[in-house]
Design brief:
Blueprint lengths: L1 H14 L5 E3 H16 L5 E7 L3 E3 H21 L7 E10 L2 E8 L19 H9 L3 E5 L4 E8 L5
Parallel strand pairs: 2-4
Antiparallel strand pairs: 1-3, 4-5, 5-7, 6-7
Helix pairs in contact: 1-2, 1-3, 2-3, 3-4
Length: 158
């Protein structure tokens, strides 16, 4: 999936004539559509998204795409044990301070995340490192499912 995320970004950059800013919503929609297509046959998990219009520097967009990809893939693998049905939702909004992206699922949640800290042993080492690379802040909640929010500051996304 990471390779497909990189491929989607490359295609967008070619279409933008190597412009430094890209349409983040279009890029994330391509990433999420690719994931949904690979999971759709016989799958009991729905992937839905709502993406506000936003632009981002191509390097930041790549990192954001990798973060979203990793979180969605982790939800598919871990949130719905025993063939449990559910929904994974990706919601991107613009804020006065930049862009906020929430990736949530209706799964079982994670006992190791009840205290609100991202745990490397729960698969978030990559996500944490990528978020730090673009100055994003991560927060998570595990109650009815699991929800991770990524806040990317304005000077990192346009």
């Amino acid at each position: 999936m990471r390779i497909q995320s990189l491929s989607s970004l490359q295609l967008l950059l070619e279409k933008a004539h190597r412009d430094l800013e890209i349409d983040l919503a279009t890029y994330l929609e391509q990433v999420l559509s690719t994931i949904a297509k690979t999971k759709e046959e016989g799958n009991r998990i729905d992937l839905v998204w709502s993406l506000a219009e936003a632009n981002a520097d191509s390097r930041d967009a790549l990192v954001i795409g990798l973060i979203v990809n990793e979180l969605v893939e982790n939800a598919y693998r871990q949130a719905f044990p025993g063939n449990r049905p559910g929904t994974i939702t990706v919601d991107m909004k613009t804020t006065g301070g930049g862009v906020s992206i929430a990736v949530s699922d209706s799964g079982t949640g994670s006992r190791s995340e009840k205290d609100g800290r991202l745990s490397k042993n729960a698969g978030f080492g990559i996500v944490s490192a990528l978020a730090a690379r673009i100055g994003a802040r991560l927060s998570c909640v595990s109650d009815d499912g699991f929800n991770v929010r990524i806040d990317v500051p304005r000077d990192r996304s346009a």
